[in-house]
Amino acid sequence: MRDRTAGVFVRLRSVAAVVAVTVLAAAAAVRPGAAEPHDVPLYHFKAESYRGFLIYASVGGGPLVPFLFDTGSPAMFSTYGGWWPGYSTLIDERGEDTIEFASGTVYHYDPVTTPVSVGTRGGRVVATAAAASIGRITNIDGQSPRRSFRVWAKNVAAGQPALSVDGTYGNFGAALHGDASFGTVMTQFPLKKGLKRGFVVQSGGRDAKVGRLTIGLTEEMIASFRLRLPMAPTGERLPGIGTADGPPGYLKAQVANTVVRLARGGRHWSGVIPTVFDTGGGDGTWAYGSSVPRDTFVKADSNEARTGTAFDLRYAGTSILSYRSGNTPARDILGFIPASADDLRINPGILMFYTYDVMFDLDDGFIGLRPAAKLGR
Fold first, then answer.
1. Is residue 116 within 8 Å of 57, Cβ to Cβ?
2. pLDDT tens-digit profile of 149-197?
3. 35, 297, 303, 314 - which has most CB atoms within 10 Å?
4. Which residues lie closer than 8 Å to 237 by C-beta, 6 or more apart?
5. What is each CA distance from 127 to 41, 73, 169, 191, 335, in whole angstroms?
6. Is 218 exposed, middle or buried (0-12, 13-18, 19+ CB in 10 A)?
7. Over the stretch 13-24, which tens digit does the pLDDT of each residue have?
8. Banded model confidence at residue 310, pLDDT cuts 50, 70, 90
9. What pLDDT, in 10s, does the model give residues 87-138?
């Protein structure tokens, strides 16, 4: 989910590698004859100083088009028009449901069951969910359904994606806080026997152009992630395939007991703040609803951290991210957003995925981290 706020920036201090990257790469290999996961490209992009990943997906059997791949959003939300067969003409009614992103953007939508495929920018389908429940966006923010539909159609007619703000056709949510009737499409792609439910996000590093999303987990892959963080369950089930039960659901801030430590000018502060692992979180690390002493660590009349604030995110005594705040996008942006206690969370955004390969093991209930490996062409 886009925790996107103008301002502050983050310099990453190196973190200790748990296992050598070469060993990890070998451990992640699939044995000959074993069931193979689905490998889907993730394309790096930058829009309005906002970094993220694009995944190419189709709705209703239409063409593969770019969506924001977002592990902070609970479901897939798509604009509609000629790229969605069966929904190519205006439906002039505002959706009954809404979702508001951290950026302030609001989608009005209706749940719709439709086939969803993912694949390559060149048009090759890799995996298909035959009957996924997704949000058909009727309008955005204060626009009328008619106005939004006309803007999308105009953009596409001009050879551009429907949404000009980020060059997409919507949001491909891969967060885990939905329920059995409306949740991520990630749990609805068929897997071969022998694979466990879950997925791995690999950026290939901050300088890569193409990363990889692996859907389905082998035992070898799971074993290669030595640093493991238990996820906090919601008590709900995510969507399954057909009549089968889906895997357990987990909170929006997936890891509950992470600790934030701050230091500046001889002053120190620490607090337990849940962490959300969010590919759509943008260029900075943003803490929401924390009790950080603002006079010590936050600039006056701003949500930005004071320059040079030492930041350390830890789990069970192990440092996960550590740096001194500065002004470099996706390296050392740090900020603190006042919010209610119910919204307490810290979102390191895309930096977490530049730093680590991140595994979401849904059946076993943990996030796995290993140093981000460069990917072959």
1. yes
2. 999 999 999 999 999 988 999 999 999 999 999 999 999 999 999 999 9
3. 297
4. 179, 180, 245, 246, 247, 248, 249
5. 12, 20, 19, 9, 38
6. buried
7. 333 333 334 334
8. very high
9. 999 999 999 999 999 888 999 999 999 999 999 999 999 999 999 999 999 9
- At position 335, the amino acid (one-letter code) is G
